[in-house]
């Protein structure tokens, strides 16, 4: 169907990245338009509000140089769409889905709305298949399940970019390696970060099974709002049309929410908590709820959103609302990072609410859940004793207490601090048993006697005593 090129010339005023057009009530919310100025330059934009009086348009580029008297608006498409194809795998795009790898435009098999299709709750299948990230702390303690949304809470200056690249490089669904893909969307990147991700994906070969959307910090804020939707539309297409198990990594959601706040300010909206718009919960939910497994469809969409908590404040609106919508969190710890431990993931405040669905006999290993609980309890005890030692000194401790202190050190050095190693779940459980075997059997109260008989006394191979660095 050909859309009539009707023009709207009554541009009332411009506020930041927003254009207010009178007598344009027949434009539809979400429509894509072109804005032409007096010199003939054309900018893209999207309708974000329509009333009887005017339409509000987000301009995808800067509004500098736009003259109210000569600017005109014309409709391009009734809703924002992305041309998708299986050939997008192995390609790099900007935040609006345009190629930035020097290769030609993708020949689209379909053009899909970037807002996605609502997933019928009755058609959702229960997520219960383990995804192996190759990172011990995640795989054993906060397991990622296919179809889950499991965010990573980080902080400014912490190595969440390196962690994201490692997950993208190593993640797999055991037994489905051939139909596993990664869609990686980064928002508000510096040029250094763009270079890091580009080189990392190419150097490790991860690009061969990945689709990258890279939005830079100097790109318009409006583009940041579209980037995750471009990525999720690609993921849904690969998953539900081609049967891929797709892992979507979104970083950094804080930059996305800051762009949401900036646009809200330009629209003169009444701010909510800390200046963020009151609809931020709904907006984030529209992204996160696009993860899932659908009955009768072979593919799936799993999400790992990454956000940096301002001032390391987990009660900040962005992590707070994210925690309500998603199924747990993985917490990157500043104290562990200062010790040189990588990846510095603290298992104590971390949680995967769907872990029990995808681990255990026939899925990972029969002792997996018990080992996870035992490691959690022993590490928590070791950290409590560290605080006690800071006050009383080590002389006041019993021999068993000293073993727990040493356990905490070994746990951080060898289990958490695996560096750049890619560990299978078997490897991770071997390391766990090797560390737990330094505690007396009587202390392993969360592990069955059969498991103790089978695995207690496991020796860690020298390869597990390697790097704590990023490798």
TrEMBL record:
<dbReference type="InterPro" id="IPR027417">
    <property type="entry name" value="P-loop_NTPase"/>
</dbReference>
<dbReference type="GO" id="GO:0042777">
    <property type="term" value="P:proton motive force-driven plasma membrane ATP synthesis"/>
</dbReference>
<keyword id="KW-0375">Hydrogen ion transport</keyword>
<dbReference type="InterPro" id="IPR004100">
    <property type="entry name" value="ATPase_F1/V1/A1_a/bsu_N"/>
</dbReference>
<dbReference type="Pfam" id="PF00006">
    <property type="entry name" value="ATP-synt_ab"/>
</dbReference>
<feature type="domain" description="ATPase F1/V1/A1 complex alpha/beta subunit nucleotide-binding">
    <location>
        <begin position="134"/>
        <end position="352"/>
    </location>
</feature>
<comment type="similarity">
    <text>Belongs to the ATPase alpha/beta chains family.</text>
</comment>
<dbReference type="InterPro" id="IPR000194">
    <property type="entry name" value="ATPase_F1/V1/A1_a/bsu_nucl-bd"/>
</dbReference>
<feature type="domain" description="ATPase F1/V1/A1 complex alpha/beta subunit N-terminal">
    <location>
        <begin position="14"/>
        <end position="68"/>
    </location>
</feature>
<dbReference type="GO" id="GO:0005524">
    <property type="term" value="F:ATP binding"/>
</dbReference>
<dbReference type="InterPro" id="IPR020003">
    <property type="entry name" value="ATPase_a/bsu_AS"/>
</dbReference>
<dbReference type="Pfam" id="PF02874">
    <property type="entry name" value="ATP-synt_ab_N"/>
</dbReference>
<keyword id="KW-0066">ATP synthesis</keyword>
<keyword id="KW-0813">Transport</keyword>
<dbReference type="InterPro" id="IPR022879">
    <property type="entry name" value="V-ATPase_su_B/beta"/>
</dbReference>
<protein>
    <recommendedName>
        <fullName>V-type ATP synthase beta chain</fullName>
    </recommendedName>
</protein>
<comment type="function">
    <text>Produces ATP from ADP in the presence of a proton gradient across the membrane. The V-type beta chain is a regulatory subunit.</text>
</comment>
<keyword id="KW-0406">Ion transport</keyword>
<dbReference type="InterPro" id="IPR055190">
    <property type="entry name" value="ATP-synt_VA_C"/>
</dbReference>
<dbReference type="GO" id="GO:0046933">
    <property type="term" value="F:proton-transporting ATP synthase activity, rotational mechanism"/>
</dbReference>
<feature type="domain" description="ATP synthase A/B type C-terminal">
    <location>
        <begin position="358"/>
        <end position="456"/>
    </location>
</feature>
<dbReference type="Pfam" id="PF22919">
    <property type="entry name" value="ATP-synt_VA_C"/>
</dbReference>
């Amino acid at each position: 169907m050909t859309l009539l090129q009707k023009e709207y010339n009554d541009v009332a005023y411009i506020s930041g990245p927003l254009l207010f057009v009178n007598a344009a009530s027949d434009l539809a919310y979400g429509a894509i338009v072109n804005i032409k100025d007096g010199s003939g330059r054309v900018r893209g934009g999207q309708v974000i509000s329509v009333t009887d009086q005017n339409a509000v348009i987000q301009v995808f580029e800067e509004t500098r140089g736009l003259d109210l008297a000569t600017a005109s608006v014309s409709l391009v498409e009734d809703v924002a769409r992305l041309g998708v194809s299986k050939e997008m795998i192995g390609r790099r795009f900007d935040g609006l889905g345009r190629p930035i790898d020097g290769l030609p435009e993708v020949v689209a098999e379909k053009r899909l709305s970037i807002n996605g299709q609502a997933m019928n709750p009755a058609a959702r299948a229960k997520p219960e298949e383990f995804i192996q990230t190759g990172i011990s702390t995640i795989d054993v303690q906060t397991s990622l399940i296919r179809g889950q949304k499991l965010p990573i809470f980080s902080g400014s200056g912490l190595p969440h970019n390196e962690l994201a690249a490692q997950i993208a490089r190593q993640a797999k669904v055991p037994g489905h390696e051939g139909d596993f893909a990664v869609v990686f969307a980064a928002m508000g990147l510096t040029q250094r970060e763009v270079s890091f991700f580009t080189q990392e994906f190419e150097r490790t070969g991860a690009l061969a099974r990945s689709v990258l959307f890279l939005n830079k910090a100097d790109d318009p804020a409006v583009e940041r709002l579209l980037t995750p939707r471009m990525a999720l539309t690609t993921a849904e297409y690969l998953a539900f049309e081609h049967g891929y198990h797709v892992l979507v990594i979104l970083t950094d959601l804080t930059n996305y929410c800051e762009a949401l706040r900036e646009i809200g300010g330009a629209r003169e909206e009444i701010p909510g908590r800390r200046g963020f718009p009151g609809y931020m919960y709904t907006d984030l939910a529209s992204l996160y709820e696009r993860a899932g497994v659908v009955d009768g469809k072979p593919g799936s969409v799993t999400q790992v959103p990454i956000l940096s908590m301002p001032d390391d404040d987990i009660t900040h609106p962005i992590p707070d609302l994210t925690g309500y919508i998603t199924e747990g969190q993985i917490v990157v710890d500043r104290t562990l990072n200062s010790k040189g431990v990588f990846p510095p993931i603290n298992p104590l405040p971390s949680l995967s609410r769907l872990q029990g669905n995808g681990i255990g006999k026939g899925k990972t290993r029969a002792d997996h859940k018990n080992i996870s609980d035992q490691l959690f309890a022993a590490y928590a005890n070791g950290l409590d004793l560290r605080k006690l030692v800071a006050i009383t000194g080590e002389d006041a401790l019993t021999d068993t207490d000293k073993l727990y202190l040493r356990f905490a050190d070994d746990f951080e050095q060898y289990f958490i601090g695996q560096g750049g190693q890619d560990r299978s779940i078997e490897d991770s459980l071997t390391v766990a048993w090797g560390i737990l075997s330094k505690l007396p059997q009587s202390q392993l109260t969360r592990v069955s006697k059969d498991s103790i008989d089978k695995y207690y006394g496991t020796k860690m191979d020298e390869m597990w005593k390697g790097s704590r660095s990023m490798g």
